């Protein structure tokens, strides 16, 4: 902001007048971590930012995570990539960095987001049950599939005699046709959009 003052001091004999101007430019913050970043298999991460300021002195930098102040660094370094270190649970998060300089002028970085998914999909074959016998070469393979954070990406099944077969993850049943009487193993696998894989097998 620009501050212009005119102040007068009166005495019995004279008037003294002076004016001054002060320039105060807020710090500039750059989020270095790419927006919409996905993390999987590890919930420990660093959020990296960089600060520049016209007076080369910054009092503090605060991380805001999902609209709440998470942590503050006193006297952070300037023009050097600096990290906020977090240990987070699965979920989607929005973050920004607020920085205040020695003139109490504050500014915010852009708002970025990241998602953590360290948990594989949940898969359960509900039919057939283990070691169930059938008098037909065609059976229905029924199952449930879900993923809490990233959503399902690829789903496959294998009946230990054929190659892997890809199917829509929105399906809940597949008709399997065997070529002869025998004991078979049915396996259903799925991964999520973070490439976490899981499988369930029935005999």
Oligomer: single chain
Cα(first) to Cα(last) distance is: 74 Å
Radius of gyration: 31 Å
Q: What is the element string, with H for helices and E for strands?
A: EEEEEEEEEEEEEEEEEE
Shape: rod-shaped
Individual helix count: 0
Round the mean pLDDT to the nearest integer and report it.
82
* Helix/sheet category: mainly beta
Describe the largest sheet. 6 strands, mixed
Q: Helicity range of the residues? A: under 10%
Tally the beta strands: 18
What proportion of the residues form beta strands (DSSP E)?
A: over 45%
Low-confidence blocks of residues:
1-11, 15-22
Task: Walk me through what this model shows.
The chain is mostly beta strands and 203 residues long. It contains no helices and 18 strands. Strands 4, 6, 7, 9, 10 and 11 form a six-stranded mixed β-sheet that branches. A hairpin with a 4-residue loop joins strand 9 and strand 10. The N terminus is likely disordered.
How is the secondary structure organized here?
Blueprint: E1 2-10, E2 15-23, E3 28-31, E4 37-39, E5 44-52, E6 58-65, E7 68-74, E8 82-87, E9 91-101, E10 106-108, E11 112-116, E12 122-127, E13 138-146, E14 152-158, E15 165-167, E16 173-177, E17 186-192, E18 197-202
């Amino acid at each position: 902001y620009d501050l212009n003052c005119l102040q007068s001091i009166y005495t019995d004999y004279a008037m003294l007048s002076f004016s001054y101007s002060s320039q105060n430019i807020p710090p500039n913050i750059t989020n270095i971590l790419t927006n919409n970043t996905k993390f999987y298999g590890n919930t420990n991460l660093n959020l990296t930012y960089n600060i520049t300021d016209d007076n080369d002195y910054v009092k503090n930098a605060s991380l805001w995570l999902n609209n709440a102040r998470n942590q503050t660094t006193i006297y952070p370094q300037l023009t050097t990539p600096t990290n906020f270190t977090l240990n987070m649970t699965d979920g989607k998060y929005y973050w920004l960095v607020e920085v205040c300089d020695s003139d109490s002028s504050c500014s915010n970085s852009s708002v970025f987001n990241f998602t953590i998914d360290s948990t594989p999909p949940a898969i359960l074959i509900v039919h057939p049950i283990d070691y169930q016998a059938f008098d037909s070469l065609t059976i229905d393979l029924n199952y449930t599939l879900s993923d809490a954070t990233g959503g399902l990406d690829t789903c496959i099944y294998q009946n230990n005699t054929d190659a892997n077969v890809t199917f829509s993850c929105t399906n809940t049943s597949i008709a399997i046709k065997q070529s002869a009487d025998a004991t078979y193993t049915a396996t259903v696998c799925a991964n999520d959009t973070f490439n976490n894989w899981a499988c369930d097998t029935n005999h």
